[in-house]
C-alpha cells in the first residue's frame, strides 16, 4: 500500500472522497470543463457539486466554474455511489481495541469499495455501523474469500500495521476444500511466477523467476473431497487459487480457475471454499505476539 496525502475532504457516510489527477497537458480552460469532458454522463451532477463547493483542490479550496485547468494537480470530490443490493451476510467482530478492529468477513462481501461494490463492502459497512471514519484495512481479502480481516482504527497507527503485511512479517494460515487426489504428494511447496494484468480478470503463471510461494498441507479427507491447510509466504493476487489449480485440485466453488465461468452477482449458492483461518504477528505498538482466528467453517461440497 502506497502512502498518499490525506484527503482535504472528510469521510462521508463511510466513503472516502475520490481523488482525480489532472492530465499532464490539455486544452481545457477550466477544471470543470475537464471534469465534464472526462465524465460527460455526469455533467449535471458535476455542475451541482461545483455549485455547492463539494469539489476542492489539494488545499481544500473549492473549485469554481472559473478555476483554471492546472496540469498534474489533484481535485477531490464525492462520487455518487451506485444503488446496491445488500449482500445478505453479516460481519462478525473478533477483536476491537484503540488501534485494531479484527473481523470475520463472510463470503461474497468485498473488503473495500470497488466497482459495483461500494456501500456493500466490509470497510464502508463497519465505518457506518461503528462510527469509525478513520477505519482503514491493514490488508485485503478477495470478495469471495471469508475469514480474518484486520483494520486499523486510528490514522496514527495505520502505517505501522500495514507495514507488517508489506514486509511479510505476518504469518497467515488459510483453509480450503478441494478435490482429493490420492496420487498428489503432500505437503508440497509451490513456487511460480504469477502475473496479474490490470483489467484482466484472471492471474496466470509465466516462465521466469518465482515471485510467489505457498505451502499446501492435507488436513482431512471426506469422500472425494479434502480439506487443506494453505500457508502463503507471499501475497500475489489470487495466489492460493492459482497454486491449488496448478496442482490439479482447484478450490471448490472457484469460477475463475482453471476455467472462468460466469456467476450472477446475487447467486450465493456455491461459495468459494477458501477461508482466512488465522493471522499472527508481533504487534508493532505493544511488542506482544497476537493471533486472531476465524470462527467460521467450510462446508463440504454436496
UniProtKB/TrEMBL annotation:
Short name of any one Pfam family annotated for the protein: PseudoU_synth_2
UniProt domain Pseudouridine synthase RsuA/RluA-like: residue ranges: 99-246
Cross-referenced SUPFAM superfamilies: Pseudouridine synthase
MF terms in GO: catalytic activity, acting on RNA; pseudouridine synthase activity; RNA binding
The reaction(s) this protein catalyses: a uridine in RNA = a pseudouridine in RNA
InterPro entries: PsdUridine_synth_cat_dom_sf, PsdUridine_synth_RluA-like_CS, PsdUridine_synth_RsuA/RluA, RluA_PseudoU_synthase
Coiled-coil parts of chain: none
A single GO BP: enzyme-directed rRNA pseudouridine synthesis
Superkingdom as given in the UniProt entry: Bacteria
Stated name of the protein: RNA pseudouridylate synthase
Organism field: Rhodococcus koreensis
Record lineage: Bacteria, Bacillati, Actinomycetota, Actinomycetes, Mycobacteriales
